[in-house]
Amino acid sequence: MVKWTDFERATIQDIFSKMDYETVGPAALSRCLIVYPWTQRYFGNFGNLYNAAAIIGNPLVAKHGTIILHGLERGVKNMDNMKETYAELSVLHSEKLRVDPDNFGLISNCLTIVLAAQMGKAFTGEVQAAFQKFLAVVIAALGKQYH
Fold first, then answer.
1. How far apart are the first and last CA of the chain?
2. Of 25, 38, 89, 130, which residue is the least packed, with the fewest Cβ within 10 Å?
3. Whole-angstrom Cα distance, residue 76 to residue 78?
4. DSSP state string for 33-70
5. pLDDT over 60 (residue 146)
6. pLDDT digits over 42-96, tens only?
């Protein structure tokens, strides 16, 4: 089980309580699909993903970006039980969707960049460390079914 400091818990809860899901989620997923174009293969039913403008303006990309953040919110509410929290999503992504587990790291990198831009100077090294630890624990839980 992961040990969380009081600072880490408070930081993660604060980030998610202030985050604009409708802005950050779509921006993070759009960035991921643009920067790592091979990830687009999992979104074949999303229509036009031919260029950056199409991706950014795609309502299905925006919707799924928001869904990703709501999925992360489940982890915020269950920081001491991440494996169980993400067990069902792990099975879905590994067995049904067959998503490459490396993609979880790619979207988390993009999410970190978008969040840093949104938070500005408030995104200190300590905040980044707590956020990236949280994402690493989520990624490990999502990847559990792959092992």
1. 18
2. 38
3. 6
4. HHHSGGGGGGGGGG---SSHHHHHT-HHHHHHHHHHHH
5. no
6. 888 999 999 999 999 999 999 999 999 999 999 999 999 888 877 787 776 677 7
In the block, which residue shows the tokens 């919707």? Answer: 63
Q: How far apart are CA 124 and CA 129, in angstroms?
A: 9
Collapse the DSSP code of 121 into the 3-class scheme (helix H, G, I; strand E, B; otherwise coil) and give the result.
Answer: helix
Tokens of residue 138, six digits: 């989520």
Helices 102-119 and 21-35, axial angle in degrees (round to 10) = 130
In angstroms, rounded to a whole number, what is the distance separating the alpha carbons of residues 130 and 4?
9
Tokens of 74: 């489940």
What tokens appear for 91 in the block? 């099975």
Q: How many residues does the chain have?
A: 147
The secondary element (H helix, E strand) that includes residue 127 is helix 125-142
